[in-house]
Amino acid sequence: MRRPRRAAFTAPMTIIALGSVALAPAPAVAHTAGGTAPKPPARPLGERPPGGAQAPSAPRAGGAEYGVLELAAASRRPMVRELNVPRAAPAGRPPRVTLKIDEPGVGTVSVRVAVVDLSTRRPVLVVMMGWIHTGRRVPVSWPRGARLSPGSYHVSLTAHDHHSGTLLRRAHSSGVATLTVTAAAKRQPHAPPPSASPPEAGVPTPAQLAADGAVFPVAGPHSYGGPENRFGAPRAGYTHQGQDVLTAEGTPVLAPLAGEIVTASYQAGGAGYYAVLHTRTGFDFMFAHCQAGSLAVSAGVAVAAGQQLCRAGQTGDATTPHVHLEMWVGGWRTATGHPIDPLPYLQALDRSGPTG
């Protein structure tokens, strides 16, 4: 007996438009001997199919998913760790400026330093430092003959690494510092002569101090500078209370007499690193602008004549390496103490003599 011939049935193609979303055609229903296969339950619009993960959303701006690559790229840019610029400096040669730049995994970066006049917003000095080592404090070498006139300036850094990563600027490491240049004090035509007045009662003379074995406090080539370095030289709002001994940075500074350290500290806008020595003769000696990290004494420590206290530097408001030496009678900065001119005593102890 012949079976009746089954007719092939194909579901009609239907497209339903929902706003801007089009649904795919309904699948054909297969007819078998057992009847029609059941349809899978309808899935709500927008529900993802089972058995697989949803594809990531559209990439974020910048081409990196979830911001991972952006963070990695940001961490591989040069960053300013130090930019040491004095707040104020006299007109003339630019002051000492040092900087330190870091970048993880990078050995050198290219650095440019510009000094911008804030009145014109234009650079007046530009120094191309080339490729410098990261993680090291590096001084800026100003061009020969460079000069700054009185005014307000920005000292600004730019840098890039070998992958063109530029300087990462943040609130506390922007790579910009303000410098105020003041008019230089007029030089006196002649240096004031050493004090010829007799010493106070009970105060040793320069000759007596030398006879007692006092030591010249600067162990290296030196000079006494010009009028501006003398005791009593005019300063902005006060007078110079010591004698400057100009010498190379790192020259040992020695105790002229045995005694005890009164204080050893740091003053950012003036003395820099300094030490004060009280001696049995009644003199107090103050040594300022010591090299950073060179202080070898602390308050309360007893020292012998000739013992090293620090090394000469240019910390604080100093613009060139030297030792600022003060001598006080009656106690350093006490109500009854006062400074005296150290130069006659230095000259009496200076067996080798100044070199300039």
What does this structure look like?
The chain is built from 3 helices and 24 strands. By secondary structure, the protein is mainly beta. The strands form 7 sheets. Strands 13, 16, 18, 19, 20, 21, 23 and 24 form an 8-stranded antiparallel β-sheet that branches. The chain has a 5-stranded mixed β-sheet with strand order 6-12-11-8-9, with no helix packed on it. Strands 5-7-10 form a 3-stranded antiparallel β-sheet, with no helix packed on it. The termini are far apart.
Radius of gyration: 39 Å
SSE pattern: EEEEHEEEEEEEEHEEEEEEEEEEEEH
Calculate the terminal CA-CA distance, rounded to whole Å.
Answer: 134 Å
Number of strands: 24
Query: How would you describe the shape?
Result: elongated
Query: What does the average pLDDT come to?
Result: 81
**Unreliably modeled segments:** 7-26, 28-34, 57-71, 188-196
The number of helical runs is 3
Give the strand content: 25-35%
Largest sheet: 8 strands, antiparallel
By secondary-structure content and strand pairing, the structural class works out as mainly beta
Helix content: under 10%
In short:
The protein is mainly beta and 356 residues long.
Give the key terms.
356 residues, mainly beta, eight-stranded antiparallel β-sheet, five-stranded mixed β-sheet, 3 helices
Helix-strand blueprint:
Elements: E1 17-18, E2 21-22, E3 31-32, E4 35-36, H1 68-74, E5 79-84, E6 88-90, E7 98-102, E8 108-117, E9 122-133, E10 138-139, E11 151-160, E12 176-182, H2 206-211, E13 222-223, E14 234-235, E15 238-239, E16 243-247, E17 252-254, E18 259-267, E19 272-279, E20 283-290, E21 302-303, E22 308-311, E23 322-329, E24 338-340, H3 343-349
Parallel strand pairs: 6-12
Antiparallel strand pairs: 1-2, 3-4, 5-7, 7-10, 8-9, 8-11, 11-12, 13-16, 14-15, 16-23, 17-22, 18-19, 18-21, 19-20, 20-23, 23-24
